[in-house]
Design goal:
236 residues, alpha+beta, Glutaredoxin, Glutathione S-transferase Yfyf (Class Pi), Chain A, domain 2, 2 domains, binds glutathione, Thioredoxin-like_sf, Glutathione_S-Trfase, GST_C, Glutathione S-transferase
Length: 236
């Protein structure tokens, strides 16, 4: 379907929620790569699109949309008229979809993001921070596991934007944080199945940063080794 959508993004867990949704809906869109390592996202022109200075954001004609969750809801509302990846408002599944989307936006994303920060990127080593956020991430994976034991997908028997949002973070848990997904068998199966979808494979590499999965695994392993070599700086 043709559209006037421009995606401003980088292929990070939050960024790919938008690109996978666009791909799943078969929408044509322009991509403006925002390499967050170079801080373009803090420039004035970009703050007019996302005042929060983060990716992803989209414009659709003169409409700006920021925050990955609201981008997904916007795209589903406006373009998913066939209900390919969303449930219709007014249904109980629609409320489930909203609940699991918000679970990701308010829980899994921020907590796993902090786990990544303390485990990989902080310029000081805090074993307290590492444990606190990895434990919380695993607790949230257990919540997903319980749900997926009873339901094929998070909102019901259909794959929706709620699955896309949570999948985008779960996919990097093993590689970045050494979380063993076999401890969460239903989550593992769900994640592997979602990972096979063509739209997911395309969206997960949009924009193309030139880095492969193997490059990321190496990058994360090096970052962990560097952190492990430091002395813990927690004060008692
Ligand atoms: N709640 C926001 C979070 C966005 C976010 O944290 N994006 C990260 C990439 S995953 C980012 O832009 N980081 C660069 C920065 O903080 O300057 C959303 O879901 O859109």
């Amino acid at each position: 379907m043709s559209s006037d959508i421009t995606l401003y993004s980088w292929s990070t867990p939050n960024g790919i929620k938008a690109s996978i949704t666009l791909e799943e809906l078969g929408l044509s869109y322009k991509t403006v790569p925002i390499n967050i390592g170079t801080n373009i996202q803090k420039e004035d022109w970009f703050l007019k699109i996302n005042p929060n200075g983060r990716i992803p954001a989209i414009t659709d004609g003169s409409q700006r949309v920021f925050e990955s969750g609201s981008i997904m809801l916007y795209l589903a509302d406006k373009y998913d008229t066939d209900r390919k990846i969303s449930y219709a408002p007014g249904t109980s599944e629609h409320i489930e979809q909203l609940s699991w989307l918000m679970f990701q936006m308010g829980g899994l994303g921020p907590m796993q993001g902090q786990a990544n920060h303390f485990r990989l990127y902080a310029n000081t080593r805090s074993d307290y921070g590492i444990k606190r956020y990895i434990d919380e991430t695993k607790r949230l994976y257990e919540v997903l596991e319980s749900r997926l034991k009873e339901s094929a997908y998070l909102a019901g028997d259909k794959y929706t934007i709620a699955d896309i949002a949570n999948y985008s973070w779960v996919r990097v848990g093993p590689g970045a944080l050494e979380i063993d997904l076999s401890e969460f068998p239903s989550l593992k199966k769900w994640s592997e199945e979602i990972g096979k979808r063509a739209a997911v494979q395309k969206g997960a590499h949009t924009p193309d940063t030139g880095k492969s999965e193997a490059d990321f695994l190496e990058l994360w392993a090096n970052a962990r080794a560097k952190m492990d070599a430091r002395t813990n700086t927690d004060k008692n």
